[in-house]
Amino acid sequence: MDLFEAIHSRRSVRSYKSDPVTAEHLNEILDAARWAPSWANTQCAEYIVISDPEVKAALAEAVGERNPGRPALFEAPLVIAGIGRRNLSGFKKGGAVTELGDWYMFDVALGMANLTLAAQALGYGTVHIGMIDHAKAAQVLGVPDEYQVVELVPLGVPAQMPNTTPRKPLGDIIHNDKF
After folding, report:
1. In this structure, are strands 91-92 and 78-85 parallel, antiparallel, or unpaired?
2. E strands along the chain, which residues?
3. Buried b or exposed e, range 65-100, using 16+ CB within 10 angstroms
4. What is the pLDDT along the chain (179 residues), one digit of tens a residue?
5. d(Cα 73, Cα 89) in Å, to the nearest integer?
6. CB 153 within 8 A of CB 113
7. Pairwise CA distance, residues 78 & 24, whole Å
8. For residues 93 and 112, what is the distance between their CA atoms, to the nearest angstrom?
């Protein structure tokens, strides 16, 4: 599958088959995340691959029961936690260089975007789960204080592909020269 086909066909998958993710495919997917751009090449994004059902169940406690992505934590064979090292991206000489402060969220998002598109290209589904108790997820995963859990992404073979959701026309979101 080419890049544009992966971009256009990627959906938020919330139901998975029990089929495993091959080690080769997982390596390709994680390598795609590794190659994402980052602020001044700080590479502050890191990833935790979760396959242990007990760890996934503990993580589900950090996701509200009303979150539509929660069942996917149990169904998908793998869950990827995207984490970012704080006070690195967007910093120079110990201080933030823009009014936006720490850029770890941006860098993790770039890596997770690459990850989800690579997964789609290889026939796997994903869904971004960001509405979580981040502190609880960090505790479950043993994440050190200098890092922040940003999101959880179930990964596996889709049980079904959701329908295409509409997108705004380009003319509604593109501005030339000025807003």
Report:
1. unpaired
2. 45-50, 78-85, 91-92, 95-96, 125-126, 147-156
3. eebebbbbbebbbbbbbbbbbeebbbbeeeeeeeee
4. 999 999 999 999 999 999 999 999 999 999 999 999 999 999 999 999 999 999 999 999 999 999 999 999 999 999 999 999 999 999 998 899 998 899 999 999 999 999 999 999 999 999 999 999 999 999 999 999 999 999 999 999 999 988 888 999 999 999 999 99
5. 29
6. no
7. 14
8. 27
How far apart CA 130 and CA 53 sit, in angstroms, is 20
3-state secondary structure of 109: helix
Question: Terminal CA-to-CA distance of the chain, rounded, Å?
Answer: 35
Can you give the pTM of this predicted structure? 0.94
Sequence letter at residue 171: G
As beta bridge partners, residue 155 has 78, 126
Total length of the chain: 179
Neighbours of 33 (CB within 10 A): 24
Nearest to 78 by CA among 35, 110, 121, 30: 30
CA distance 121 to 32: 11
